[in-house]
Design a protein that fits this description.
The chain is built from three helices and no strands. It is mainly α.
Length: about 100
């Protein structure tokens, strides 16, 4: 079977459209969940620096901004793990089904 025939069958398969839709929606949602807090943090740090300048302890040097920034970074890593987990599970399963049906 030629490469073009398999590609045409894949594109015509309704499961392929389902896969593309699910993957796109999931990626957009996760991107917003990561980028919205990041850009909000950057906006508030640049316009309202006193908001994150309060010290955590009386004699400490660490401000509130440090743990907030760390949480944003760690959250991004965790959400990357969520995406990889779903991509290796549901999305790979759908891809295999589409390819199996296209090779028939």
């Amino acid at each position: 079977m030629s490469e073009n025939t398999i590609q045409a069958k894949v594109r015509a398969n309704p499961k392929f459209a389902e896969l593309v839709g699910k993957r796109t929606r999931f990626a957009i949602i996760l991107s917003l969940v990561v980028l919205l807090p990041y850009y909000s943090f950057m906006f508030f740090v640049s316009t309202q620096p006193q908001m994150f300048a309060a010290k955590l302890g009386d004699a400490g040097i660490v401000t509130i901004g440090w743990p907030v920034a760390a949480l944003i970074i760690i959250g991004g890593w965790l959400l990357t793990g969520v995406y990889v987990s779903r991509a290796n599970g549901e999305f790979d399963r759908l891809t295999e089904e589409v390819l199996k049906e296209a090779r028939k």
